[in-house]
Amino acid sequence: MRLMPxxxxxxxxxxxxxxxxxxPDTSQTPAQEDDAALRDYESCSFDDGLQIVKIDSLPxxxxxxxxxxxxxxxxxxMLAGRRIMFAYGVGGDxxxxxxxxxxxxxxxxxxxxxxxxxxxxxxxxxxxxxxxxSLPTSMHDLEVHGFDRTTLKGGTLGFYLLFxxxxxxxxxxxxxxxxxxxxxxQTIEQYRDLRxxxxxxxxxxxxxNRRLHEPAAKDDR
Length: 221
Description:
- It is a single chain.
- This protein is of the alpha+beta class.
- The chain has one domain (30-213).
- 28% of the residues lie in helices and 31% in strands.
- The strands form two sheets. Strands 1, 4, 5, 6, 7, 8, 9 and 10 form an eight-stranded antiparallel beta sheet that branches.
- The longest helix is centred in the C-terminal third of the chain and has 26 residues, at 188-213.
- The termini are far apart.
């Protein structure tokens, strides 16, 4: 019978009461931070009726993909990713398929070069494509590279890469052809105008969203 008080004493001596009024833990794991950075790519307003109509995350377990380059197949590793579809009105034909992906910092430089080499391979394999040299190399602090088809043929009319060199986010943008009777452009010049407006507006939205999501600076006074 003397063992019972001892057991009770040990039970209470090892019990730690929860902290009173403890602040919530708002820290994020590296995986959560990689995923959260892509929120900046998920919202944007356009003045011509274009809108985001569908957002998908990477399928579970999808951590790499293979691309074709002038030097052969290369692997791109992904910490997080999205597929964001843009269309003129819900139910309308898709205009852009956007895929932002967070890449590992350690392999950023190498994999960035592989992605640029993928563009070179695409252009070399299709004589009806042309690199876009009319755009600035940077739009709203995002590095821009890409090319377009010279005619309104095929399912994809343009392919662009945006590089956020600070947060190691590489974004692939596929600009899509649409049914001739319903699409917003009827000539290659009209397509190019929509393309430029899309890239300028979307990169501006990313920059604005990033400022909104950045933690407020502490006042040390």
